[in-house]
Amino acid sequence: MSNLKDLFNPRGIAVIGASRDPTKIGHIILKNIVEYGYRRGIYPVNPSVSDVMGLKTYPAVSTISDKVDVVIVSIPNTKVPEAIDDAGKAGVKHAVVIASGFKEIGNVDLENEVVRRARRHGMRVLGPNIFGYVYTPVRLNATFGPRDVIPGNVAFITQSGALGIALMGSTILEGIGISAIVSVGNKSDIDDADLLEFFDEDPNTSVVLIYMEGVSDGRRFVNVASKISMKKPVIVIKSGRTEAGARAAASHTGSLAGNVALYESAFKQSGVISTKSVEEAFDFVKTLSWNPLPPGDRVVVITNGGGAGVQASDTLADDGIYLEKPPQDFVEEVRKILPPFASLANPVDLTGMAPEDWYYRSVKSALQNSGIDAVLVLYCHTALTSPVGVARAVAGAVDEVGVRKPISVAIIGGLEAYEAIKHLTNLKIPAYPTPERAAHALAAQLKYRKYREYLIKKEQIAS
Ligand code: COA
Fold it and tell me: Do domains 5-287 and 293-450 have the same CATH topology?
């Protein structure tokens, strides 16, 4: 386990700058820590008040007699170095510096001073210029973002603050369960590689999502990312891909977004799944965190619309996944329920008149067939069936079969389709509004499986 263990499971946590003023960031962070249910010591630090939210307040961290492993620093930038010294002397191991006004606006010396003082005391620094962090296994939400993060197995590292907070909210909306959210901001000390080392060993995390503008030590990132990718998928949203984007990144977190081709080749080398947008990344997170990994890439597509099937086939082919004829025993099974004019190639076309039951039986049959590794289900809303009914039929088949196989579902239509997607999402069955997104998200999982095998083989040859 890397030395970030105490950051994620601190014996005590102090909030420097905990104010009674409910509009101040120090107040909101303290409130989130208390209300999300952190059970160990919580210590507000503020020399000008005696208590905040009913908790005794301390004038300085050094006056707290209990063990404090983490300080959240929410005071103006110029006051940070002194607070770090005090916390360091008190034996604190990690400083989470919320304050802005450092490297991102050219205050490099001030940022270096903070890190220098922290190192003098053997302390690590997260930030500055961040919104805090979350670790759901210990019910710790030390952010000024939304409170009710859904516990789960996805760790999210973000270099962007405001976007990161917004995405925190999106994870709740999208039903994505979180193990950790870490705002890294200027990455003065703790960076993506340090965090990947921790998440590699963390039994509560099975997928890592990173919003990245740039990394300073590319070689170390590649080494650490290659290692974790053999066990867990790492998805990166790399921003600053264009010259305009790179300029914006430089003035945002002071990052050098760097050469796009270099980043892409580094991601490829290390098995990192590179995405261009938040939407694509979230789509991938769903298949990669909710589905088990398949043993191979034999996909069967089940649809009620030829067009949707063609779009999905094209998308899969673009991703290097080619559809083969389905296994004969599956074809025979499905033939029993379908009209003679139904096409039983791949995609399997249930035809426009398919009722819910045909979906139930064909999906169940595909999930049970050992010659099929993954199932892509497409449904175009027709007046003959209800999207929620089809969603229930698919979920029923998944439930009946018991053992999970990678599955991805597209429910294409209007408001009712949206309801059906929500129904599947609540059951952790990846569901999307278009055939392309459902196919692309499933392909990400199949591609990751292949790449993971390659990385493992490479490692075996090297050792
Ligand atoms: N130790 C403990 N408390 C201290 C202190 C110290 N050394 N120095 C000041 N305080 C107290 C203040 O008195 C105040 O409490 P009060 O309301 O009871 O008076 C509290 O700490 C906060 O200090 P204040 O000066 O009011 O600052 P603030 O809350 O307005 O702003 C920051 C502090 C860090 C939020 C602000 O400077 C900042 O950087 N904002 C941007 C943050 C950001 O966007 N981060 C990136 C997100 S993605």
Answer: yes
Sign of CA dihedral 345, 347, 350, 353: negative
Residue owning tokens 């891909």: 241
Cβ atoms of 287 and 445 closer than 8 Å: yes
Ligand 1, atom 18, residue with closest C-alpha: 19
Per-residue pLDDT, 262: 82
Distance CA 84, CA 108 (A): 17
Task: Please give the class, per CATH, of domain 5-287.
Answer: alpha beta
pLDDT score recorded for residue 269 = 87
Give CA angle at 329 (325, 334), nearest 5°: 85
Q: Which CATH class is domain 293-450?
A: alpha beta
| pTM (two decimals) | 0.94
Pocket of ligand 1 (CB under 6 A): 16-17, 19-21, 24-26, 45-49, 74-76, 79, 83, 98-101, 129-131, 161-162
DSSP label at 106? T
pLDDT at 350: 95
Whether 193 and 217 have beta carbons less than 8 Å apart is answered as: yes
DSSP label at 37?
A: T
- Cα(59) to ligand 1 centroid in Å equals 14
Q: DSSP letter string over 319-362?
A: TT----PPPHHHHHHHHTTS-TTS--SSSEE--TT--HHHHHHH
**Separation of alpha carbons 414 and 378, rounded Å:** 15
pLDDT at position 342: 87
pLDDT score, position 404: 80
pLDDT at 357: 96
Contact 175, 428 (CB under 8 A): yes
The low-confidence residues of the chain, meaning pLDDT below 70, are: 1-2, 245-258, 403
Cite the beta strand spans of 213-341 per DSSP E: 234-238, 273-275, 299-303
Residue spans of the domains in the chain: they are: 5-287, 293-450
pLDDT value of residue 212: 92
Who's near 402: CB < 8 A, 6+ residues apart? none
pLDDT value at position 253? 58
- CA distances to 49, 207, 308, 319, 402 from 265, in Å: 53, 21, 33, 17, 39
Name the residue of 15, 20, 23, 24 to mutate for ligand 1: max ligand atoms within 8 A of Cβ.
24
Residues 6+ apart with CB under 8 A from 171: 149, 150, 154, 156, 177, 178, 181
Rounded Cα distance, 290 and 444, in Å: 13
pLDDT at 430: 97
**What is the reported pLDDT for 2?**
42
